[in-house]
Design a protein that fits this description.
about 20% strand; 3 helices; elongated; alpha+beta; about 80 residues
Length: about 80
């Protein structure tokens, strides 16, 4: 999804300019998706972390609670 967002921003900026109404509309759309959908925001930030930090600096664990809602714990290890 990040690649789609990145490419869409680039294409609109190249075609209409960074100061255009079209570019502002695209930014607003993707910011809205980020703010409204936890899954998108989580994947976006995880991708950013994995791109700019060491892969082994992230540890994930999964724990199933008594209720049918999974809990995911992420912790960052400083190496």
């Amino acid at each position: 999804m990040f690649l789609y967002s990145d490419q869409t921003h680039k294409k609109v900026k190249d075609n209409y300019g960074k100061a255009s109404d079209e570019f502002e509309a695209i930014k607003k759309i993707f910011h809205g998706v980020y703010d409204r959908y936890f899954g998108y925001a989580f994947c976006y930030r995880l991708r950013n972390h994995l791109t700019h930090a060491r892969l082994d600096s992230l540890r994930a664990s999964w724990q199933q609670a008594a209720k049918p809602s999974p809990l995911v714990y992420l912790s960052r290890r400083v190496v």
